[in-house]
């Protein structure tokens, strides 16, 4: 009998323990934040302004049959200030009925001004917070970061969802880098490279991807535009980038559009004694990207009146020249203007030339003058539905 | 009587050994391994495994010499021979004390480590004690049973534990940058040895086999089980270290407290139906930690029971009595930093009972046998 009682008691203890509902919080008992924007308060340099976008479940069409009319109602936007980001979040909590929940936050918008001052102090809180996902997207916004949350895209009920789709589809198409918070953390820690983030601009109702914000350490040093960003994507991530539109030489108002489909990039690091220019004792290192683009011609606005074989050849040299020029411009910007190695050349150098280069040089200083070039191979495969 | 308790099969030995070794250490291992070795961090667990090989050789040798006996029974025999078992037992008391106290403290640290992970990452509002007490109650329940139940539990939970061990390196392949693993070079041999010595703590748990070899079925392949268990563990640790380094780079690893958990969090890519893998991972991990903790604590209690020659009733009472100080041991480190410091001291303490003494015992036994054989031979020569 005693044994039965003992078993019963043990069972009872287990049942109460195993429910695991110590800090249970139902879904409707939390305030999920979809996006956070960080700005500087005008006139108060020591304060951050945090803006959050909170979806209102009941207003989202189809959720409960009531339907949402104007899509501006589907989210609530709140702004709050604080000395740090966490301070601001705590101040925000004072104005909310439910507990703030950052587990669903997908976008962290940071204004350019804040980014240029350095975002290490902002990121520290997010590094420590276990709710924050490393797959979240930090985005640098031209002008005020809060403007990104206030857009009314009309195509999606929740502005952040619109933005997420924009980035997600862009990275699927290979035109926008999938640069997550985790990538940013890894790149800032890594001694051989510098981080970069997506750079957007928001207007009243729209948002536009502008390119890439280049960082040095935790500070933004500048931005590169979409065309250079696509070159970066091809060279760094083997993503295809956007269409290449080139004016036809000699033809007024004539354009040709090349759409890359497959990209293959190889980074070759040379020391010059292989090339035989200098003495072996002082080898000059250099990096060459060999990039092969396969793609189609999708638009030619002027008829060139040349046979197709010649046309393909002519176009290939034309595109090759254009792509190499673009890459050269990218390198000049990164090296001379920003002095920031977001191309991951340093990582490759450390991996493959550790003893003969990396140990003897300070990459942060050397990158500026490191010889880098890109050699493109263009392979035009198809001409669309036209014969020429 | 002694043949009755020999119930553990070869497969059970393997699963017991692996689940005793793989515990909470793997969660912080990529960081500790790459601390000084940088991108060569994966060498750390391999060196640690090599260190563990030595005492394992000794243990296998001893249990082949004394089949069916646990170290509690054969240690006195080795020290003083069969004629003076009583003296041998007295001589062995410090050794038993070191062994049991290490198991006890190590069990405490394993529980604390797991509690810390759960409290910092998932259940933020839950007090640490609640998690620990729940875990201890299940261990207590386990201690109410005989050894065959323990090994069966290990056998049962072993496949569940396998899932994360191989899933982690696999899912992290998508975001890997292999240049992070290069260059392959060793700048300082000392760093390698130091890392090996520190990562050796990942392997503690194998010394429990000194008891369980003695409980193995007659005919169980002890040597085979040991080497399979060790190689499996070394490979899974090295793979996890590689995964951590290729995904994060060694610099970033130094900033993370539980890199393996972060690995699981980042590994959730599109196309994977579970969006938040870490909760599932931790749920599975409970099984792994439970077996590690359970094995250590059970062995402590069971060893004391064997030493005193008592029955299962004694074991039940003792396990309950010992759990209370265990809770205090677990709560001894005041902060997470202190926890890691304590765990490190414990590793050094563990060297005495996990490496030094098994090896010493094997050497003593070997010498005795040799001299014994020689005297036999000389006697033969005389006659």
From TrEMBL, chain B:
<comment type="similarity">
    <text>Belongs to the amino acid-polyamine-organocation (APC) superfamily. Spore germination protein (SGP) (TC 2.A.3.9) family.</text>
</comment>
<feature type="transmembrane region" description="Helical">
    <location>
        <begin position="196"/>
        <end position="217"/>
    </location>
</feature>
<dbReference type="GO" id="GO:0009847">
    <property type="term" value="P:spore germination"/>
</dbReference>
<feature type="transmembrane region" description="Helical">
    <location>
        <begin position="320"/>
        <end position="342"/>
    </location>
</feature>
<feature type="transmembrane region" description="Helical">
    <location>
        <begin position="224"/>
        <end position="250"/>
    </location>
</feature>
<keyword id="KW-0309">Germination</keyword>
<keyword id="KW-1133">Transmembrane helix</keyword>
<feature type="transmembrane region" description="Helical">
    <location>
        <begin position="282"/>
        <end position="308"/>
    </location>
</feature>
<feature type="transmembrane region" description="Helical">
    <location>
        <begin position="117"/>
        <end position="144"/>
    </location>
</feature>
<keyword id="KW-0813">Transport</keyword>
<dbReference type="GO" id="GO:0016020">
    <property type="term" value="C:membrane"/>
</dbReference>
<protein>
    <submittedName>
        <fullName>Spore germination protein</fullName>
    </submittedName>
</protein>
<feature type="transmembrane region" description="Helical">
    <location>
        <begin position="90"/>
        <end position="111"/>
    </location>
</feature>
<feature type="transmembrane region" description="Helical">
    <location>
        <begin position="42"/>
        <end position="62"/>
    </location>
</feature>
<keyword id="KW-0472">Membrane</keyword>
<dbReference type="InterPro" id="IPR004761">
    <property type="entry name" value="Spore_GerAB"/>
</dbReference>
<dbReference type="Pfam" id="PF03845">
    <property type="entry name" value="Spore_permease"/>
</dbReference>
<keyword id="KW-0812">Transmembrane</keyword>
<feature type="transmembrane region" description="Helical">
    <location>
        <begin position="156"/>
        <end position="176"/>
    </location>
</feature>
<feature type="transmembrane region" description="Helical">
    <location>
        <begin position="12"/>
        <end position="30"/>
    </location>
</feature>
<feature type="transmembrane region" description="Helical">
    <location>
        <begin position="348"/>
        <end position="367"/>
    </location>
</feature>
């Amino acid at each position: 009998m005693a044994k039965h009682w003992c078993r019963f008691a043990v069972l009872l203890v287990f049942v109460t323990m195993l429910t695991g509902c110590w800090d249970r919080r139902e879904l409707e008992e939390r305030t999920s934040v979809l996006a956070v924007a960080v700005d500087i308060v005008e006139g108060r340099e020591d304060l951050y302004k945090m803006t959050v976008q909170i979806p209102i479940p009941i207003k989202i069409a189809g959720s409960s049959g009531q339907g949402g009319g104007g899509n501006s109602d589907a989210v609530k936007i709140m702004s709050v200030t604080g000395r740090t980001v966490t301070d601001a979040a705590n101040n925000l909590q004072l104005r909310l009925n439910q507990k703030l929940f950052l587990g669903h936050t997908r976008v962290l918008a940071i204004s350019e001004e804040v980014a240029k001052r350095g975002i290490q102090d902002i990121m520290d809180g997010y590094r420590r917070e276990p709710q924050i996902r490393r797959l979240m997207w930090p985005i640098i916004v031209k002008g005020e970061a809060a403007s990104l949350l206030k857009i009314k895209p009309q195509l999606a009920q929740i502005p952040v969802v619109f933005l997420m789709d924009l980035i997600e589809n862009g990275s699927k198409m290979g035109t926008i880098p999938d640069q997550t918070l985790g990538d940013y953390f890894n790149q800032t820690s890594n001694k051989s490279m510098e981080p970069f983030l997506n750079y957007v601009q928001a207007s009243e109702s729209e948002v536009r991807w502008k390119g890439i914000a280049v960082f040095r350490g935790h500070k933004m040093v500048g931005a590169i535009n979409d065309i250079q960003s696509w070159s970066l994507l091809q060279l760094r991530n083997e993503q295809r980038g956007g269409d290449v539109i080139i004016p036809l030489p000699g033809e007024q108002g004539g354009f040709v559009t090349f759409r890359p489909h497959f990209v293959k990039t190889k980074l070759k690091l040379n020391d010059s004694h292989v090339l035989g220019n200098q003495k072996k004792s002082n080898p000059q290192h250099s990096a060459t990207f060999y990039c092969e683009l396969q793609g189609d011609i999708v638009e030619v606005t002027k008829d060139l009146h040349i046979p197709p074989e010649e046309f393909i050849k002519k176009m290939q040299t034309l595109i090759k020249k254009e792509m190499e020029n673009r890459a050269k411009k990218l390198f000049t910007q990164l090296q001379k203007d920003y002095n920031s190695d977001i191309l991951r050349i340093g990582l490759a150098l450390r991996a493959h030339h550790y003893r003969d280069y990396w140990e003897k040089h300070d990459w942060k200083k050397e990158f500026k003058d490191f010889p880098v070039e890109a050699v493109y191979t263009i392979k035009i495969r198809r001409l669309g539905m036209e014969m020429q | 009587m002694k043949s009755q308790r020999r119930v553990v099969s070869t497969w059970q030995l393997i699963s017991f050994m692996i689940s005793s070794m793989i515990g909470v250490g793997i969660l912080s291992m990529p960081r500790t391994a790459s601390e000084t070795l940088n991108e060569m961090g994966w060498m750390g667990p391999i060196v640690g495994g090599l260190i563990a090989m030595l005492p394992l050789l000794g243990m296998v040798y001893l249990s082949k010499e004394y089949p069916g006996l646990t170290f509690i029974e054969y240690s006195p025999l080795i020290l003083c021979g069969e004629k003076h078992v009583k003296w041998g037992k007295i001589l062995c008391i410090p050794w038993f004390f070191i062994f049991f106290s290490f198991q006890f403290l190590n069990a405490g640290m394993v529980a604390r480590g797991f509690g810390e992970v759960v409290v910092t990452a998932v259940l933020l509002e839950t007090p640490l004690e609640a998690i620990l007490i729940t875990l201890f109650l299940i261990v207590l329940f386990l201690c109410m049973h005989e050894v065959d139940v323990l090994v069966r539990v290990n056998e049962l939970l072993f496949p569940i534990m396998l899932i994360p061990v191989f899933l982690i390196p696999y899912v992290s392949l998508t975001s890997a940058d292999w240049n992070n693993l290069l260059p392959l070079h060793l700048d300082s041999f000392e760093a390698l040895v130091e890392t090996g010595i520190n990562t050796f703590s990942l392997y503690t748990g194998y010394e429990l086999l000194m008891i369980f070899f003695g409980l193995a079925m007659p005919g169980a392949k002890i040597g085979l089980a040991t080497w399979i268990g060790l190689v499996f563990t070394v490979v899974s640790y090295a793979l996890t270290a590689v995964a951590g380094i290729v995904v994060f780079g060694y610099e970033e690893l130094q900033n993370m407290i539980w890199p393996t958990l972060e690995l699981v969090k980042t590994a959730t890519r599109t196309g994977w139906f579970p969006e938040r893998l870490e909760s599932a991972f931790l749920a599975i991990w409970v099984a792994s930690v439970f077996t590690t903790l359970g094995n250590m604590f059970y062995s402590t209690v069971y060893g004391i029971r064997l030493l005193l020659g008592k029955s299962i009733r004694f074991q039940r009472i003792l396990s309950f009595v010992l759990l209370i100080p265990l809770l205090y041991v677990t709560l001894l480190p005041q902060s997470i930093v202190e926890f890691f410091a304590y765990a490190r001291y414990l590793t050094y303490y563990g060297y005495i009972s996990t490496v030094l003494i098994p090896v010493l015992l094997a050497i003593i036994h070997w010498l005795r046998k040799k001299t014994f054989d020689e005297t036999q031979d000389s006697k033969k020569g005389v006659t």
